[in-house]
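Run log // design_07
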């Protein structure tokens, strides 16, 4: 657009023939100068837009996001914040129970914090489906320890107290682990209808020794390429590590695979090439398109009968540098996430990871006859 404007001006100027060589040189110089000024103006405009946009993001994130577990310690109890802490801590226990060989008594600091968070939440807001899930996970944890000769009567009584807050509406099956058989998993992933396909995918944190073939990864990536992207720019890239040593080196840069990383058959690193984007308005687009691609890839892996677990890249700068040096991922690619992959053992446990009620997700627009446009 800007270039078009320059061309129009240049055309206007050349409509007047120059009287001498000197004039022509002067006009040529002027044009070059104007072009440079326009380029600098465009660059400054971009820089200003990028900076103000990031400042806006910083302000919003700083105002909104949880700042550690102060919600509990400082007596502050913002509803969503506390809920998110409960969900995250309960999930830590749930996924610990889903490992191949959970260590009896694991996660004591998380358990203490979770009990505190739950007591506070019940006092301030009353029980709900999030605390129901957390209480059920704690119940499963108490049972697991008891079955491994590490029962704790006080702990179980405390959890029973929280369970009684929930009353008769509590569904004891919501939250905890479920057993999955490899046969049923493969059948649902490959032969089922679309609803079963979606519902049968779980994050897998227990893999068999069977080697993952590059052909299966290629097939999954090829499916994931069907993901939509802004202007079809397809910024995504995948780095696949299937040999044991490389897999372990890559996983060592990431924080969330403790307890199961050593069983994985490989790891994928999904990135998004930021050179694909132009304007400051697109500063987050790489994460959106890359995230959507990663989701498709996870389903593509599921369709290949492979288990997978997304692994966060909420990495400190030192980890980011370490990964880039190790893998050669260039600076202009943003790391979106890693995905642990592998074949399933004959039977395994997966975390239920209970979902919120639909009414908390489908919240605006035109829902149940109510319009939310003001
Ligand atoms: C971006 C992203 C990062 C994640 N990071 C981790 C991780 O580091 N470690 C882990 O065990 N699970 C991780 N997960 C898996 C989530 O815990 C899991 O998807 C969630 O609990 C829902 O369970 P489901 O995948 O079984 O449906 C991650 C998921 C996403 C989408």
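design_07 sequence
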């Amino acid at each position: 657009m800007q270039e078009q404007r320059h061309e129009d001006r240049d055309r206007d100027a050349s409509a007047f023939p120059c009287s001498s060589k000197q004039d022509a040189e002067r006009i040529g110089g002027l044009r070059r100068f104007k072009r440079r000024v326009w380029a600098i103006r465009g660059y400054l405009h971009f820089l200003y837009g990028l900076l103000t946009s990031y400042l806006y993001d910083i302000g919003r994130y700083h105002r909104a996001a949880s700042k550690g577990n102060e919600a509990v310690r400082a007596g502050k109890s913002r509803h969503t914040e506390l809920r998110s802490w409960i969900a995250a801590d309960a999930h830590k226990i749930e996924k610990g129970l889903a490992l191949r060989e959970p260590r009896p008594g694991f996660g004591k600091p998380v358990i203490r914090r979770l009990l505190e968070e739950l007591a506070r939440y019940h006092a301030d807001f009353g029980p709900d489906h999030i605390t129901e899930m957390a209480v059920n996970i704690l119940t499963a944890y108490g049972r697991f320890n008891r079955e491994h000769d590490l029962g704790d009567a006080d702990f179980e009584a405390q959890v029973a107290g929280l369970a009684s807050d929930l009353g008769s509406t509590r569904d004891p099956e919501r939250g905890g682990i479920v057993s999955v058989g490899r046969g049923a998993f493969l059948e649902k992933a490959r032969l089922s209808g679309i609803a079963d396909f979606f519902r049968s995918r779980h994050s897998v944190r227990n893999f068999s020794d069977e080697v993952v073939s590059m052909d299966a990864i290629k097939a999954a990536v090829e499916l994931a390429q069907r993901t939509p992207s802004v202007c079809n720019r397809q910024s995504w890239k995948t780095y696949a590590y299937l040999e044991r040593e490389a897999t372990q080196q890559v996983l060592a840069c990431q924080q969330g695979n403790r307890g199961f990383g050593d069983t994985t058959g490989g790891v994928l690193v999904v990135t998004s090439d930021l050179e694909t984007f132009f304007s400051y308005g697109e500063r987050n687009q790489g994460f959106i398109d890359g995230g959507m691609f990663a989701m498709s890839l996870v389903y593509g892996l599921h369709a290949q009968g492979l288990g997978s677990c997304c692994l966060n890249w909420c990495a400190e700068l030192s980890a980011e540098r370490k990964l880039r040096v190790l893998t050669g991922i260039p600076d202009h690619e943003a790391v979106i996430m890693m995905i642990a992959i592998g074949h399933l053992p004959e039977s395994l446990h997966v975390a239920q990871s209970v979902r919120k009620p639909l009414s908390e997700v489908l919240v605006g627009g035109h829902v149940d006859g109510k319009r939310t446009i003001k």
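The chain has three domains: 2-64, 80-176, 178-351.
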